[in-house]
Amino acid sequence: MNNLGQAIHIKKEILVRIIKAFLSDDFERQARLIPYDMRPKGMEVPYRCCVYKERAIIKDRTLAGLGFPIEEDDETVSLADYAKQALERQSISDKNLTVLQAACKGCATNRIYVTDLCQGCVARPCQSTCKFGAISIVNGRSVIDDSKCKKCQMCVKACPYKAIVKISVPCEDSCPVGAIKKDETGFASIDYDKCINCGRCTVACPFGAVHERSQIIDILKALRSKNQVIAMIAPSIVGQFPGNIYQLKTAIIKSGFSDVYEVAQGADITANTEAKEFSERMKEGQKFMTTSCCAGYNQLIKKHLSEIKPFVSDTKTPLYYTAQIVKKKYPDATLVFVSPCVAKRAEGFENPNVDYVMNYEELGALFIAKKIQILDLEESKYEVESSKQARNFGYSGGVAESVKKSLKDEDMVKPCVINGLNKDSIKQLKRYAVTGDCEGCNLVEVMCCEGGCIGGNATINNPKTAKKLIDNFTQNSEDITKV
After folding, report:
1. Cα–Cα distances in Å, from 11 out to 7, 50, 62, 186, 358?
2. Dihedral, CA of residue 240, residue 92, residue 192 and residue 235, to nearest 10
3. Tens of pLDDT along 152-169?
4. Is 421 helix (H, G, I), strand (E, B) or coil?
5. By CB neighbour count within 10 A (0-12 exposed, 13-18 middle, 19+ buried), where does 181 fall?
6. What is the pLDDT of residues 360-389, one digit of tens each?
7. Following CA atoms 49, 53, 58, 64 in sequence, which dihedral angle do they give, to the nearest 10 degrees?
């Protein structure tokens, strides 16, 4: 969950102001004024040295909200010009993240460091523990050779005085694949060839320096056009907004969309199809199969973990099947997926049936800008009611349970759950791939975010609260059809 406190409030305020500017009679002028309206002359500066620095940072954050890469900003180009370019834009980029270097503090290098608490003890436990010869004694004190240090932290654990510490860079530490590092300028830079779009860096940075590149202007342009625009909402949206998903459908239509579909409808297809595939693979003698619905996991497989591909289900994601259904009914419509995470932007870009992806934060900003109060609205039913299990796809364990409940012989499923991708869980998956065995289970559910989609970087509610709300809502839903 995106829980950056004040940083997330600033981002939300900017999104609301961008949408209001678009809805005004003079988008370009109103966009240009955003930094000045948020930090007027004479205002006490809350974060930076002066009002001009604050305005510069707000301008950069607004660029991300308009869908542009902050790194490529030409300081001589005004926000009015960028707003005009956004209106004229015909396509979106596959690079979904951008770094605001003006907000990035250029944190100290991620390393193991001996502090002044070092007592120069006789036992030298740090030196004797290090397997790489990285620690030497200079003037009676421990010194670490960074070129030899493997950051294993054994010396940190061994020091009786807690004198050795790991200096962490939050964005780098959070990335499971080493895709974000300092560049030659000393500021964070994203390697898109490695990036799996997990969104961890957007949550981890305490300065809010890593942003998603929003597609909100492109979506607003579509809503203003004569085309029908259909929203497809992810299962994890339950519990993210006030009211229930029937009131939420009314709110989304009131905001300008033509119709709304639950992606849980596609999740029913995913669960049934994956259950059939699982049964067939087990009969053929394969020892295990992993799920395939998580966009971040699919990016990991493509870029870093190709060895596990033979064990990954060939079944498509819930979004894939839902978009297919919607496109068949509305062949000329613009399709917008409403998502909890940045990884789904990557999936949407690769799916010809999905035009844009809007996250929960952006949908919330749209409601605020249009003064839509969900709790005041009547309920609107969905064309198809999804099963209990499909609506549970949004949290960790829900996918495996859906596959299990889809089978007549539920006992054949021995599930295990990878609850969040990190360096350790990736090693675990590699071990499964190399050995061809997953240590007592035969169905491995993999979720990129801890807690599942309710832990996505763009979610609004606490994951534990969201899970309770989903469970309460799905109590009255029908069970999935068995295959």
Report:
1. 6, 20, 8, 24, 15
2. 20
3. 999 999 999 999 999 888
4. coil
5. middle
6. 999 999 999 999 999 999 999 999 999 999
7. -120
CATH code: domain 111-167 is 3.30.70.20
* Residue 439 amino acid letter: E
pTM of the model as a whole: 0.92
Would you say the C-alpha torsion 218, 224, 227, 233 has a positive or negative sign?
Answer: positive
- Cβ distance 247 to 379 under 8 Å? yes
Token output for 292: 């395939």
Torsion of CA 156, 157, 162, 164, to 10 degrees: -10
Q: In this structure, are residues 364 and 241 in contact, taking their beta carbons and an 8 Å threshold? A: yes
H, E, C per residue of 55-101:
HHHHHHHHHHHHCCCHHHCCCCCCHHHHHHHHHHCCCCCCCCEEECC
Question: Domains of the chain: which residue ranges?
Answer: 6-106+178-214, 111-167, 218-474
Token pair for residue 14? 């900017």
Segments of 310-454 assigned E as strands: 334-339, 356-359, 415-419, 443-447
State the pairing for strand pair 443-447/356-359.
Answer: unpaired
Entry field: residues in the chain: 483
